[in-house]
Task: structure prediction
Amino acid sequence: MAELNMLTAEYYGLPLIPPYIRGVNQSSSNFGAGINFAVVGAPALDVGFYEERGIHFTTSNISMRTQLSWFKGVLPSLCRSSSCRELFNSSLIVMGPFGGNDYGHSFLQGRSLEETKTLVPLVINAISISIQELINLGVKNIMVPGLVPDGCMPISLTMFKGYKKEDYDPITGCLIWLNDFSKYHNELLQAELTRIRQRHRNAVVMYANYYDALIQLYLSPEQHGFGGEPLMACCGAGGIPYNYDSDAVCGDPPSTACAQPSLSISWDGAHCTEAANKFITKSLVEGPYTAPHINSSCSLITEESGHSSAATATTR
Result:
């Protein structure tokens, strides 16, 4: 979901945000508009926690805590103690969404719904600790996204195929139990963000409702300009119904890409297309899907700094 953070920055007039890993040895001037600390497959909890429980991460061993340490490490090159307040007042930190990789690896490695559900409070606590560390550093504006409706993703619909009609939402065709799991995470996250706001009244901690923003497309895809097969990946293999094959993922033969990606919601089965991400971004900044609303914070940022807000993204 790092793409959403890039598009949000673009919406407020910022250039593309460079990735930290690529620019780590470059001048801090390259990070003037922001830094993207995203790493594909990054979990909220440390990989060692999962290894001890027999859950193995094959995509990334860089957790949220590592990304936060990168942020702390680069901070002295961006501001001195006397100027950090001005930087933080004119910056927006987007932290997340985290949790999806934690739960996905658990499910894909055969752990039950009940066992995986026990991870949620631990993930929420890790997110909370990271947010409060940022606030203690002086960060003023943080946006924390929730999870998307994972039960609508082609990868989920393929890997967790249900055998009962009742497993699927009759309107969207999405897996009910997996979407309910995303909702459970989001409910706990919102409750924790409320507690953080009560403890840190000088900081603006926004919740970004990715779930409700994206579910609109599955409920009425054609109304929003998308095609008639909303659950199919544009790039993949296998054809109808989901065009996802774990042995032939996008980029590997015999996978192919659809002719009109802008009509698809899913790009490769696990990530949204640019068109879908633009829809979500517009829904966030123009619709009711951030609380408190992002425009109220970003307008203040712009007024205080005299220029477009810097955006530092810490994402999966």
Notes: Residues 301-316 have pLDDT under 50 and may be disordered. Strands lie at 91-95, 141-145, 204-208, 235-236, 256-257, 290-291, 310-314. The CA atoms of residues 62 and 266 lie 25 Å apart.
